[in-house]
TrEMBL record:
<keyword id="KW-0934">Plastid</keyword>
<keyword id="KW-0560">Oxidoreductase</keyword>
<dbReference type="GO" id="GO:0004739">
    <property type="term" value="F:pyruvate dehydrogenase (acetyl-transferring) activity"/>
</dbReference>
<dbReference type="Pfam" id="PF02779">
    <property type="entry name" value="Transket_pyr"/>
</dbReference>
<protein>
    <recommendedName>
        <fullName>Pyruvate dehydrogenase E1 component subunit beta</fullName>
    </recommendedName>
</protein>
<keyword id="KW-0786">Thiamine pyrophosphate</keyword>
<dbReference type="GO" id="GO:0046872">
    <property type="term" value="F:metal ion binding"/>
</dbReference>
<dbReference type="Pfam" id="PF02780">
    <property type="entry name" value="Transketolase_C"/>
</dbReference>
<keyword id="KW-0150">Chloroplast</keyword>
<comment type="function">
    <text>The pyruvate dehydrogenase complex catalyzes the overall conversion of pyruvate to acetyl-CoA and CO(2). It contains multiple copies of three enzymatic components: pyruvate dehydrogenase (E1), dihydrolipoamide acetyltransferase (E2) and lipoamide dehydrogenase (E3).</text>
</comment>
<dbReference type="InterPro" id="IPR029061">
    <property type="entry name" value="THDP-binding"/>
</dbReference>
<dbReference type="InterPro" id="IPR005475">
    <property type="entry name" value="Transketolase-like_Pyr-bd"/>
</dbReference>
<feature type="domain" description="Transketolase-like pyrimidine-binding">
    <location>
        <begin position="4"/>
        <end position="179"/>
    </location>
</feature>
<dbReference type="InterPro" id="IPR033248">
    <property type="entry name" value="Transketolase_C"/>
</dbReference>
<keyword id="KW-0479">Metal-binding</keyword>
<comment type="subunit">
    <text>Heterodimer of an alpha and a beta chain.</text>
</comment>
<keyword id="KW-0670">Pyruvate</keyword>
Length: 324
């Protein structure tokens, strides 16, 4: 076991896959000589050279289109967005090309493409650098979406994503890069379509992902002291949703709380609620509660920014309400 930061776990995964397979390459803004905006590609340029760690101009639609074309020809591109918000400039290439070409080509083309980078609400990054793009991309056919939350799952998920033959959007939270954790020195992989059972419990199921995992666990520590026994699942797979694991948990607890940093309107929680209400409504002993970010551009002001996202006390209050 080695103790590594989350950004180092991502770098290790990238390095191992590039060393194993010469068709894997990285492209994006500042990924080469600078080593990436959060140092995920640090030192890879010196090892692999300009053609496999490719610094691009600030032209997201162009280099995303180039990545899709490279994937069609048999390469395995990893696109790093300096900030995931910037990839909205490549929305057409991600949706109409990366997402749909395998289907519209009649299966003649595969698109083994990973799109990754930092996102989420950071520390006063302003509205255009605090985007949560899960809700933007979840309805696009052909895409997979995963959100890492620990150094361990970050490495295992990224290795799986690089080897997958479909386009994968890989969400990293800007405030989690400096998390540190022991991870195995031996090679391992984590499935792209499975939720992680973080804590077993019997009273209520709490679903979450990414940074909100830590807000949930902070709340759970207090709830346990008060005699509650919550079960916590980290979704990890945002598309497809691992509804099977959610239902297994819900059969035990019969109550569901969803905690996300995504916007409330059209967010991941909205999709889960729809699926549960459509197919598993009889498992519920109480209405589903979702805690989501405010439907407003994230303010630059620090105090206002804090108000837009969910905090542990809100989670505690919601659990107490559902279990009273």
């Amino acid at each position: 076991m080695s103790k590594v930061f989350l950004f180092d776990a991502l770098r290790e995964a990238t390095d191992e896959e590039m060393e194993r397979d010469s068709s894997v390459f990285v492209l994006g803004e500042d990924v080469g000589h600078y080593g990436g905006s959060y140092k995920v590609t640090k030192d890879l340029h010196a090892k692999y050279g300009d053609l496999r760690v490719l610094d691009t101009p600030i032209a997201e639609n162009s280099f995303m289109g180039m990545a899709v074309g490279a994937a069609i020809t048999g390469l395995r591109p990893i696109v790093e967005g300096m900030n995931m918000s910037f990839l909205l400039l490549a929305f057409n290439q991600i949706s109409n090309n990366a997402g749909m070409l395998r289907y519209t080509s009649g299966g003649n083309f595969q698109i083994p493409l990973v799109i990754r980078g930092p996102g989420g609400v950071g520390r006063q990054l302003g509205a255009e650098h605090s985007q949560r793009l899960e809700s933007y991309f979840q309805s696009i056919p052909g895409l997979k979406m995963v959100a890492c939350s620990t150094p361990y799952n970050a490495k295992g998920l990224l290795k799986s994503a690089i080897r997958d033959n479909n386009p994968v959007i890989f969400f990293e939270h800007v405030l989690l890069y400096n998390l540190k954790e022991n991870i195995p020195d031996i090679e391992y992989f984590i499935p792209l379509d499975k939720a992680e059972l973080v804590r077993e419990g019997s009273d209520i199921t709490i679903l979450t992902y990414s940074r909100m995992r830590y807000h949930v666990m902070e709340a759970v520590d207090i709830l346990v002291k008060d005699g509650f026994n919550p079960e916590v699942l980290d979704l990890i797979s945002l598309k497809p949703i691992d509804i099977k694991s959610i239902v297994i948990s819900l059969k035990k607890t019969n109550r569901l709380l969803i905690v996300e940093e995504c916007m409330k309107t059209g967010g991941i929680a909205a999709e889960i609620i729809a699926q549960i209400n459509d197919n598993y409504f009889d498992l519920l002993d109480a209405p589903i509660v979702r805690l989501s970010s405010q439907d407003i551009p994230t303010p630059y002001n620090g105090n206002l920014e804090k108000v837009t996202i969910i905090h542990p006390q809100q989670i505690i209050n919601s659990v107490r309400m559902l279990l009273r």
